[in-house]
Amino acid sequence: MRAICKTLLPVALASLFCLLLAAAAGGCRRTDGNADERHAEGNGGAPDDGGNGDKGAVAVILYFRYDTPEKPWLAPEKRIVDAAEPCLAAMEALIAGPGQGSSLKPVLPETVRVLEVALENGVCTLDVSKEILTDSSKVGAGASSEMLALAAIADTLTGLEGVERVKLLVEGTQSGMVEGRLVEDFWGHVGLPEYLERNEAVIYNEP
Length: 207
Fold this sequence. Notes:
Strand content: 15-25%
Mean pLDDT: 81
Structural class: alpha+beta
Largest sheet: 3 strands, mixed
Radius of gyration: 34 Å
Number of strands: 7
Helix content: 25-40%
Distance between the termini: 106 Å
Low-confidence stretches: 1-53
Order of helices and strands: HEEHEEHHEEE
């Protein structure tokens, strides 16, 4: 009996040793597999967006009215808008007015609707609804308000890539009567030019 035990003991120890080796080897394979998966995720997985999820957004600079004791100006306000249609998104944000708590004032009536926007050869053709004329009193229809409103549209849109100037239409036209108002007169002081050009002279600079 003692001889049999002496014979079986080495075999049992050898079997146990093999089992331990197999388990250890299996553990290493799992670890290597996880490492390979992490490497694949880092190189062939979803692209890193920096954690902000803003690949479909773009920063724009909007311009609103800023009053000083001397005169009214335009002042910038940064906003993040949809990158798919930046001209449309920027205009809708400009119409919506300054952010909550801002000391700036709107330059366009909030009732205005953007009917169509098209960009071709550096010209952004912007067609807006009649409320830009009929509701102008909501933002003051004086000469300075009119000049700043037109400049705000031009300065906001020409800040976008590819936009060099703006052709503003009201209900699809630049002339004629809309709701008893002459489109070419706009608010009755400056009038509506064929193209709106960037005007940085009206942008306020801190002394």
